[in-house]
Please model this.
Amino acid sequence: MINDFLKFGYAAILTVIVIALAVDLVWGLAAGLAVALLGLLGLFLLHLRRFKRFVQWLEGTELEDWPKSEGVWESIYRKVYTARKKTEKNQAKLEEKELRFRSTLNDLPDGVVLMRKDFEIQWINRIAVRDLSLNKRQDIGRKLADVIHSEELMTHIRSKKWGESLMLSLPDGRTLEVRVISAGSKYTVVVTRDITESKRIDDFRRDFVANVSHELRTPLTVIKGFLELTEENSTLSQEDRLHLKMMSEQAERMSSLVDDLLTLSRLERDSAPAGRDPIDMLEVMTDAVAEGRMVSGGRHEIRIDKVACEWVLGDRKELRSAVTNLVTNAVRYTPEHGKVSLSWEVTDQGGVLSVSDNGIGIAPEDIPRVTERFYRVDKSRSRETGGTGLGLAIVKHVLFRHQAQLQIESEIGKGSTFKIVIPKVRLLDEEEELLGAPAGAAERSVISKSDLIH
Model:
């Protein structure tokens, strides 16, 4: 189109120049220049008038009815008309897609709030209107902080720590799971999900497990007592004693299972952060090693390799349970004469307690599931050694209450390393250690490595 316009312009200007030269030859230079100026001015005014009509046509609504023209301007009108019709068609398709997209979002069972990066609301679906008590007509264009009355939610959004969801309790008794998602460089999305019913089912399941486990304790205590009395009978045959021993072992295993179920139920009910009592990590590790040696029965080498001086703020009973579960778990999955080692050190991540073994290892596909209840990498081996299948689930919940993380490194046939990473906010510095630790703790914190090993 530009080339056509230029060709037309060059031709018109050339025509004016030829006429001006002819006039110059006949009437002189002055007359030729006058004709040239008048010709160029006429061309300019002509194209200016046509350009004005072109602009008026562009601003109008009737694209099909363009002004009558000829030559290059007819070509311009036709090509612009074709381009605009194509643009309108694409715009219609885009609007149709956007309408379908918004209709789909509006029909989702989850609430969706689309905001700009400055938290100005751009769009809300009907579920978000219900969940967050918004008004679809009045709240579009307003800042989220001006229409949301939950300070807890706004604090979570402003923190920009959006990796984890927020559980929000509503005044009407419902519970929302709220997730904040960064949608590119311009938008932020808030997604809400009503989990009231699933939470009710989870609470029912936890209460049921806790109640059943509690009720099982009494009959188990009675059974174990009578088994112990029966074993003292000197008239029993060798076969009867073997049967009684098997019954005692299974009763003890059932008792351990009940204890673990009750512990897990308690941890699930209490998701608040753990207390901040000073804990001597050397004591915790020593207790865990003693428990591991009892489970091992002398068949494994279990030792503490390294202990940092820092203490931890938390719940001693829970942390002892977590570390003991890791140690006994390592023993159960390590063949006879294998090694289990513990270490406690402080890194840039925080306090890191590692439990390493040279056992059977864990396949990569099993690692994400090992903290599930009753999930066993090797079911037969865990049952043979008395495992309940709940140890790592308990560890996960204990660490959650301590804002800690569980990291697992493993290789089939070469062993595993379980790391408890405790954040720096739960570590005691030297001054706090002296002020908050029990009497005699300073002496225990400098026990030699040889004492730890033996």
In short: Residues 277-453 form a domain with the Heat Shock Protein 90 fold (CATH 3.30.565.10). The CA atoms of residues 260 and 390 lie 7 Å apart. The first strand starts at residue 111 and ends at 116. DSSP finds 15 helices and 13 strands in the chain.
